[in-house]
Amino acid sequence: MGRREYxxxxxxxxxAYEIHSQLGLKAEVVVSLSYLGQAxxxxxxxxxxxxxxxxxxxxxxxxxxxxxxxxxxxNHFRVLAARQEPKAVDFLQQAYAAMIQQAERIDDxxxxxxxxxxxxxxxxxxxxxxxxRWEVVEMPLREQV
Length: 145
Known about the structure:
Elements: H1 3-23, H2 26-42, H3 46-62, H4 69-82, H5 88-104, H6 109-118, H7 120-130
Helix pairs in contact: 1-2, 2-3, 2-4, 3-4, 4-5, 5-6, 5-7, 6-7
């Protein structure tokens, strides 16, 4: 995507945030802010990205039932890593932990493995964890039911 597309993405995320806020959709507000932070990052606005992403993380702490929790943590990790903030690894660890926790709720071993290995966000988390650039404590995924 080019700057123009990221500018449009930022506009769409802001609109989504406003609509979700008006409707009281708290989980969706978190996700909208998280993606808005990513758009700002791609637009070369790391300060706005950081502020927006921090707001998403603060709201996530209040709103525990967010389906895309690992994506929100991964997005925040990316913002912090781009800003070279040491606490970035903490959010990669949280993204990884959220992925494993969600996977553990799946009883069927085959479906669990598909969730971990074929979901795009989970692939991205695993790639960062395995990159060796970050000190992340890997957690074993259960194989049996």
